[in-house]
Amino acid sequence: MASQRGEGETTTTPVEPADRERARAIPEAAVARLAVYLRVLSGMSDQGVTAVSSEELSQAAGVNAAKLRKDLSYIGSYGTRGVGYDVEVLVSHIERILGLTRSHSVAVVGIGNLGHALANYGGFPGRGFPVTALFDVDPDLIGIPVGGIPVNHIDEITEVCLEREVSIGVIATPPPAAQSVCDRLVSAGVQCILNFAPVVLQVPDNVEVRKVDLAVEMQILSFHVARRADEAAGVSAGIDSAGNNGLGVDGMVIRP
Amino acid sequence: MASQRGEGETTTTPVEPADRERARAIPEAAVARLAVYLRVLSGMSDQGVTAVSSEELSQAAGVNAAKLRKDLSYIGSYGTRGVGYDVEVLVSHIERILGLTRSHSVAVVGIGNLGHALANYGGFPGRGFPVTALFDVDPDLIGIPVGGIPVNHIDEITEVCLEREVSIGVIATPPPAAQSVCDRLVSAGVQCILNFAPVVLQVPDNVEVRKVDLAVEMQILSFHVARRADEAAGVSAGIDSAGNNGLGVDGMVIRP
DNA sequence: CCGACTTTGTGCATGCGTTCACAAGCGGTA
DNA sequence: TACCGCTTGTGAACGCATGCACAAAGTCGG
Question: Looking at the UniProt record for this protein, which Gene Ontology cellular component terms does it annotate, in alphabetical order (chains A, B) (predicted)?
């Protein structure tokens, strides 16, 4: 990196302006894939692999080789033509772009089944995401340590988040509580939220929300099951004995 | 539906050929949003709302109104111009397209923290996804009921899945076991897999995989934290006392 | 030192998804 | 019945992401 820039910097800023522009320009979809490449690369590194070609890496990551190269080009050109990429070099540059050189303190709100699972996830895979605060409303849970962290009451969310410099909030509450919890997190200065509650959160523009919605995932799969069934029925159209083909007769189905 | 078709059918198939073509044509992204609309509509229905405009619904679902109308148009035209949509009608048509008129039997593999949480999720929100089988390798878990279902040994996966007609497999195992579990599910005839393990699964073309990857989600959020920090540093470029701006000095950081 | 081979990085075309803007259609009202 | 205002449904333009194909650039063997 330091070696391959050099076009006149007019500011006195010590950080690379080019990095900021680059980071801003990376497509969202590419960011998600970079995280996958990072995991694959880390695995390779652990196994002692030191070099890798775009072809190998792309196959391990389950993507097109050209796409992988384009994704990597967003963060700079760290490959060697005719050879490939140095695993360690790629790892460190992806980590830098993803902001993993800082560790991000995480708070989990809602210590039910899912909250327990998250709190015990063990510093989050690929570490750099220490869970430093847990919240719930249930008086029986307050003070109980889960995964080594004692649970605080949700009313303390602002003070605790500020004190522990929480930068990512994870919402694992029942749906009705989610928006209220979200609002409190936001007012505590949390700007990134990972939402497991099946609710569409309303947040100000400066807050980033990502949602993980199990019901939606299941329903997408269901759609594909149905599509497949339809296709199967379509291939043997009219041959299959009438009736049982995933859609109700006439396609009209009133739910019970 | 039944009332608004009628253009000459040349086959003797009782299901709508138009439905199949339509379903095939729905963009993946739209399917995911349809699931969200369905949840919002169900909520409205529960609150006694019977009619809704695209504007209202789009706001509740957090999307653009035009996009919502286009999404709904993929499944047919069930609105009334000048009025809006009937909530119940939309609900039933979205359910039909998503294949929710059949219930889809779910198997969860890997009964750790996350597996427990999933098994107890209560038939999965928005129901229609009964968990009917649980698997693990730990002998201490075999036979123990979790969420009402006794845990089977993973070696029984084929028989049990076939017997209980599992159509969706959920992988919640440690990473190293995921591919092997996936292969077993596939050979047991499961064609849809929801993967929580941070691993890129290799599957045949006829199997649909969706992955939920917490580490990737966190890293995407981390990227946005870093981008924000950079922007903040950029706005006050050079004014901010040198150093602490999310990127290491010179943008070059070697991980420990 | 040179030429052949390998692999990266990227310009370009293609396709998909989103957004805009408006005509078509429907209910209400006089 | 005829008009008016409202909302849907969609054609068309735009923008982003993907995939291709090739030039640039490096290594290795002779």
Answer: cytoplasm
